[in-house]
Amino acid sequence: MAILRTCVFLVSVLGYCLGANILYLIPFTAKSHYIMQRPIGLELSYRGHNVTVVTAHKEVEHPPNYHQVMVDNKQIWDVLGIKRPNVFTMVDMTSEEFHKNILWSGGLAFTEVALNSSEVQKFLKQDHTFDLVISEQFFQESMYVLAHKYNAPLILITTFGNCMRHNIISRNPLQLSTVVSEFLDVREPMSFWGRMRNFYFTLYEFVVWKYWYLEKQEALVKKYIPNLREPVPSLYDIQKNTSLMLINGHFSFDNAAAYGPNIIEIGGLHLTLTRSNVSLPKDLQNLLDGAKNGVVYVNFGSNVRSSELPIDKKNAFLNVFRRLKQTVIWKWEEDSLENKPDNLFIRKWLPQKEILSHPNIKVFISHGGLIGTQEAIFHGVPIVGIPIYADQFNNLLQAQEIGFGRILEYHSINEENLWNILNDVLKSSSYKNKAREVSARFKDRPMSAIDTAMFWIEYVLRNKGAPYMKTPGLKLNWFAHHMLDVYAFIFTLFIALIFVIKIIISTILFKKESPKRENKKKYN
Ligand SMILES: *[C@@H]1O[C@H](CO)[C@@H](O)[C@H](O)[C@H]1NC(C)=O
């Protein structure tokens, strides 16, 4: 009896230690964001935590301790109240326009949709306790106030790699000469003007974000999340207090950068969920197995629609594909495609990471989205990239510089350019070799990406928010943190020294010169 009681006691204590109550906020509706972040919630629940996920994408199969609070699944164009534009036209947007018209206006509208969703409102009114709040870091900062509401540590996740504004707030090194702001496309990032552009844009983004965007997010807090425990800290301070940031990057592919211990790279996480077991549909399996000359795989991601290509560019693709001996598989969003060559197969949807894992894939023609780029890296597939917006140019520039991909600028798409670039990547073995090399080093880690994420999330839980992981620089004002007071002091000393030396020299010279002058006068 006593033994049984001890067992029950031990099990309940262990249960308490192992299983935390975790709130996971990933309300942004874009599919690619969900693909990257989905494994974290599922894996936490497999490991015994009681997870509540605020999301727009419903999981059908999940453990019983995985709960979902559904956000209305609206597309960005619906929430912005505009007709869906042809996404290819976004290639001409500056990074400033992209932030103003898409990220900031879309972010505000999406946050409002999420907070105003009936299930979310119902959830907010219920009584819950959470040991930890995890949230995506993507223009829905008002959600972070829930960490204050439940008095729990906050962990943030990026789907896009390094986050400049977070680095500024959390006093992580900016490294503007080598790390480009996440959604800024700079042709030569390390040239003088490249660095100047990065500096200017980072400053611009931070100032507008801090003084305009966060104010708007604060207003959404007031409107949709009432009855918070007073005093309510500002969203800026809540983010500054973040325990941990998990970023979707890895130094084997991204530029190596220095981070404090509270920023952890988990790039490629969605490729390492061991429990997912998706296999290729039979028809695709047969098609890929039977492609004796290899396969060219074309997919511009979930937001860009190939079928919206202007007619001349579409024809360039068709004419080039017709001349290839390889099989071509293209994600094409319409039922038919006029003039379709016999070696081209179209599908409205394709299971991308399973396709890229097939040994017959020779090249991936892509828009350079980070998820797809990581999938190509993981499976060692060379890329021909046509960047359209956001971080796509940076991802592809990195692939090109490392040597497993080539960029084809959207405006340069014609039969000749596409043929030349595609054939270069198909025929010269250097791209394939480099892709294999990067694949190997991308996977060469002490722990898989998902295990790394789990370790650090549970680390924060075990260590009550682990505040000691933050730099003590946060206690200083920005002037002192950047050593500007010390530099100013040394500079002043230096100027003073020059001044003193100048006085001494001129006094000596004056003494020597003065008799001469008197002499001169005499002669006159
Ligand atoms: C798990 O979380 C849900 C909220 O989604 C809550 O209702 C439930 O009581 C929690 N279970 C435990 C064991 O804490």
Summarize the structure in words.
It contains 19 helices and 13 strands. By secondary structure, the chain is an alpha/beta fold. It has three domains: 285 residues, Glycogen Phosphorylase B (Rossmann fold, 3-Layer(aba) Sandwich); 166 residues, Rossmann fold, CATH 3.40.50; 41 residues. The strands form two sheets. Strands 3-2-1-4-5-6-7 form a seven-stranded parallel sheet. The protein has a six-stranded parallel sheet with strand order 10-9-8-11-12-13, sandwiched between helices. Helix 11 runs parallel beside helix 15. The relative contact order is 0.10. About 2% of the residues have low confidence. Bound molecules: 2-acetamido-2-deoxy-beta-D-glucopyranose. 2-acetamido-2-deoxy-beta-D-glucopyranose (NAG) binds next to strand 2. It is a single-pass membrane protein. Its EC number is 2.4.1.17.
